[in-house]
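Exercise 7.
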Amino acid sequence: ERAYTRAAFELYQHGLSKSVFIEHGNLSKFTYTNINFIALLLEEWAWADQFLQQYRDCLPTQDRTPYFLQNKAVFYFRQGAYAQTLELLQQVEFQEIFHALDARRMLLVSYYETGATEALYSLLDSFALFIRRKQRSIGYHREHYANLLRFTRRLLLLDPKDAARRAALREEIMETTAVAERAWLLKKL
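Solution. The predicted structure, written as tokens, is:
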């Protein structure tokens, strides 16, 4: 419930001030990510940036670099700073499947937004292969991401002056139930 986002944020802030989330000197990678996510939903940019830096060293050693880079990439991505997003995502290999999916989604949008067309086409191919290989592991998410890839390819091939085809694609995206980055795709039309 979005109505409770501010309350959750304040609870996290209070918990951090009392070190409630720190166990044996560590902050859970999941708590770290959740706190960042809520701060970004509220567009608490300065607070989120400070939080990511301040609590980076509280992450378990083996998770420190990938979780910091992934969360910092999300921080930049949510602000539309796509060049910085790309720079960070290219520094880390994600072991967890849903982080790998999320990273590829951010790469796709960032390549499109920065005009890196060759990299985008290459990503579309590798992303499709990744989805096929991991279809059992990702369950229903497969359809969301497959539709994102399909609609992105169509968007790339669409003549910007062809209003009828743009409207038809918009309608198809709106009628398709499972689409990752639906709002972004619709903005591009």
